[in-house]
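Bumping my old thread because nobody answered last time. Still need a sequence for this structure:
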Protein backbone atom coordinates (compact mmCIF):
# COMPACT_ATOMS: atom_id res chain seq x y z
CA UNK A 1 0.00 0.00 0.00
CA UNK A 2 1.37 3.42 -0.88
CA UNK A 3 1.39 6.28 1.60
CA UNK A 4 2.74 9.82 1.82
CA UNK A 5 5.14 10.29 4.76
CA UNK A 6 4.16 13.24 6.95
CA UNK A 7 6.65 12.50 9.73
CA UNK A 8 8.63 9.41 10.82
CA UNK A 9 5.52 7.94 12.45
CA UNK A 10 2.64 9.44 10.41
CA UNK A 11 1.42 8.78 6.87
CA UNK A 12 -1.45 9.91 4.64
CA UNK A 13 -3.11 7.64 2.08
CA UNK A 14 -3.02 9.16 -1.44
CA UNK A 15 -5.92 6.94 -2.57
CA UNK A 16 -8.29 4.35 -1.14
CA UNK A 17 -6.51 1.00 -0.74
CA UNK A 18 -8.40 -1.90 -2.34
CA UNK A 19 -8.49 -4.43 0.50
CA UNK A 20 -8.01 -2.32 3.64
CA UNK A 21 -10.91 -1.91 6.03
CA UNK A 22 -11.65 1.46 7.63
CA UNK A 23 -9.27 3.31 5.30
CA UNK A 24 -10.04 5.95 2.66
CA UNK A 25 -8.19 8.49 0.55
CA UNK A 26 -6.56 11.17 2.71
CA UNK A 27 -6.83 9.36 6.06
CA UNK A 28 -3.85 9.88 8.38
CA UNK A 29 -2.39 6.97 10.34
CA UNK A 30 0.24 6.49 13.01
CA UNK A 31 2.71 3.83 11.87
CA UNK A 32 5.61 1.94 13.39
CA UNK A 33 8.69 0.72 11.51
CA UNK A 34 9.64 -2.85 12.32
CA UNK A 35 13.20 -4.21 12.36
CA UNK A 36 12.76 -5.52 8.81
CA UNK A 37 11.98 -1.96 7.62
CA UNK A 38 8.28 -2.47 6.95
CA UNK A 39 5.75 0.02 8.28
CA UNK A 40 2.73 -1.23 10.22
CA UNK A 41 -0.37 0.81 10.98
CA UNK A 42 -0.96 1.30 14.70
CA UNK A 43 -3.99 3.61 14.67
CA UNK A 44 -6.03 6.00 12.55
CA UNK A 45 -5.34 9.54 13.73
CA UNK A 46 -7.56 11.54 11.39
CA UNK A 47 -10.34 10.60 8.99
CA UNK A 48 -10.35 12.54 5.73
CA UNK A 49 -14.11 12.57 5.32
CA UNK A 50 -13.94 10.44 2.18
CA UNK A 51 -15.67 7.07 2.06
CA UNK A 52 -14.45 4.07 0.06
CA UNK A 53 -17.15 1.72 -1.18
CA UNK A 54 -16.19 -1.35 -3.20
CA UNK A 55 -18.71 -3.04 -5.47
CA UNK A 56 -17.86 -6.44 -6.90
CA UNK A 57 -20.15 -7.82 -9.59
CA UNK A 58 -20.75 -11.51 -10.14
CA UNK A 59 -19.52 -12.79 -13.51
CA UNK A 60 -23.12 -13.22 -14.69
CA UNK A 61 -24.39 -9.92 -13.29
CA UNK A 62 -26.88 -8.00 -15.47
CA UNK A 63 -24.85 -4.86 -14.63
CA UNK A 64 -21.85 -6.15 -16.55
CA UNK A 65 -18.84 -8.43 -16.23
CA UNK A 66 -16.08 -8.21 -13.65
CA UNK A 67 -13.17 -6.01 -14.62
CA UNK A 68 -9.79 -7.61 -15.32
CA UNK A 69 -8.24 -6.58 -11.98
CA UNK A 70 -11.16 -7.94 -9.99
CA UNK A 71 -11.11 -11.23 -11.88
CA UNK A 72 -7.46 -11.66 -10.93
CA UNK A 73 -8.22 -11.07 -7.24
CA UNK A 74 -11.48 -13.07 -7.11
CA UNK A 75 -11.14 -16.30 -9.08
CA UNK A 76 -14.24 -17.85 -10.63
CA UNK A 77 -16.20 -20.04 -8.26
CA UNK A 78 -15.96 -17.62 -5.33
CA UNK A 79 -19.44 -17.30 -3.84
CA UNK A 80 -20.99 -13.84 -3.96
CA UNK A 81 -23.77 -12.26 -1.94
CA UNK A 82 -26.89 -11.00 -3.68
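Sorry it took so long. Here it is:
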Amino acid sequence: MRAEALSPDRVRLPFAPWAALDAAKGDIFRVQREEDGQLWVREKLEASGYCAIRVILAADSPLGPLDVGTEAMWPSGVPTAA
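The chain has a mean pLDDT of 81. Let me know if any region looks off to you.
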